Amino acid sequence: MTSAPRFLAMPSEEATAYRLGAPDAYGLSPERRLSPGGYPCRHCLDEIAEGEAYLTLAYRPFPALQPYAETGPIFLHADACPRYEATEVLPPMLESPDYIVRGYGADDRIVYGSGGVVPTTSIVTRALDLLADPHIAYLHVRSARNNCYQCRIERAETASTDSRRHA
Question: Which long-range contacts (CB under 8 A, 24 or more apart) does 56-59 make?
């Protein structure tokens, strides 16, 4: 694979629904708070500045419940923000020294042996290596410290406009 991988954010329709009070993956309303700064928004893939309102909610970036459908907390700007568009560029919110990058098959199950902690500067290279495997349909970038979902990576030629392909 020679083209750059595509980093995909939460779909705008989902972000809007949560901002309007739609229940999260646990059936709860998103919690609204003021940011101390440094929290990553999963829609614009940038940081939520200090003093800005944000939402915390349980997010399941998979189409259906199944044993591998991890659910966890994410942050989202409480007010509308533009969806991340520079899909071939490492998102600005990825500022930690490293992240978990893990592959999933077309059945939304983990492809064993694909996951690992990767230095942030090596995410693109690791993504290209993993996406060369025909058994891997897409990747997740997750926090290496807390396993929180950050964003999805797909092959450039197959990237959808829906980052979850399973909403």
Answer: 56/30, 56/31, 57/18, 57/24, 57/25, 57/28, 57/30, 57/31, 58/24, 58/25, 58/26, 58/28, 59/10, 59/24, 59/25, 59/149
What is the C-alpha to C-alpha distance for residues 32 and 49, in angstroms, rounded to an integer?
Answer: 14
CA distance linking residue 109 with residue 158, whole number of Å: 18
CB 121 within 8 Å of CB 41: no
* pLDDT tens per residue, range 53-91: 999 999 999 999 999 999 999 999 999 999 999 888 899
Phi, psi torsion values for 126, nearest 5 degrees: -65, -40
Determine the distance from the C-alpha atom of residue 97 to the mean position of all C-alpha atoms in its chain, rounded to a whole number: 17
Q: Which residue has the tokens 């614009």?
A: 44
34 has which bridge partners? Answer: 53
Q: In one letter, which amino acid is 108?
A: D
Q: In sequence order, what are the beta bridge partners of 53?
A: 34
Q: Which two tokens stand for residue 52?
A: 């800005």
Reported as type and span, the H/E element at residue 53 is strand 53-59
How far apart are alpha carbons 1 and 11 in whole angstroms?
Answer: 26
Answering whether pTM is above 0.85, one says yes
